[in-house]
Amino acid sequence: VGGIEALVSTIYNAGEREEITEPAVCALRHLTARHPESDVGQNTVRLKNGLPVIVNLLHPPSRWPLVKAVIGLIRNLALCPANHAPLREAGAIPRLVQLLIRAFQDTQRQRGSVASGGSGGGGGAYADGVRMEEIVEGTVGALHILARESHNRAIIRGLNVIPIFVQLLYNEIENIERVAAGVLCELAADKEGAELIEQDGATAPLTELLHSRNEGVATYAAAVLFRMSEDKPQDYKKRLSLELTNSLLREDGGVWGGELSQMPPDMHEFIPPSEGGYDPMYAQGPPSVHSAGHPPPPQNYPGGYDPHLPVDSLQGLDIANQQQHRSGGGGGG
């Protein structure tokens, strides 16, 4: 606890000296996840008034390496329910969404540049040595955990970011698919969220993701579809139930995420068990990638209720180049 208090004080006193704040944030990130007493760390940061100063580091003049570390720390801190309201009050949610939109647009721009024969190649979008896919994955992952709280879900719904979550379901990087399906799973817990998700055309990619080789992706996709079916006709629910059961059966006869028959009605337990400890954004090695050969996603994502549960194809959004952190502005929170 004393060490955490010292780190919070260090960050507060360092101001804009990133050679001090970045290692301090990284140390806090490691102390707040994958650790026997990580919950103590998550609470201590709040009790020492660390949340506002940490959220403030998401804003300029912070450079991308520091921003990436802060995003990961905020995700860890959000694992503690008592931190949801203070993070919201500090403006974390709008700023995370701004960073997500910025990084997503940069990857889209590079995708268009590569498709038209421009420069950039397929190596990814970088700024200050940080891949923009990592920012996409990190921000969506943090929003996923924050969306466990109803007031936070209402704010996320109002920021018009659900269409981006839906497009990320087509991404070729499994970790991005996983966090996108995860945040949609939480947002679908509310009727308003489920309706928006369906209107933005999520049914087709979610149905395809039921067949993902990644347990987390398949399980979250099933949970979103289940929650979206709440107000649907009974025959639709029966066909969906059959589809979920068949799709989630593994070759060994087991079921992703546990036996479907044991899941509660709202499928709240129908989520991967590793959520508290795995932080792929900071894992070693290259990002996991879906098998190649998927046709491209539809240019227009159809919305609305489709009684036939269409299965559409997946295609990753190619990764792209990013301009320097201060070009184009960073927005405020």
From TrEMBL:
Pfam families: Arm. One of its GO terms (biological process) is Wnt signaling pathway. It is a peripheral membrane protein. GO terms for molecular function: cadherin binding. Residues 271-333 are annotated as: Disordered. Keywords: Cell adhesion, Wnt signaling pathway. One of its GO terms (cellular component) is plasma membrane. The keyword Transferase does not apply. ARM repeats lie at residues 2-37, 49-92, 160-202. It comes from the Eukaryota. It is found in: Cell membrane. This is Armadillo segment polarity protein. It comes from Hirondellea gigas.
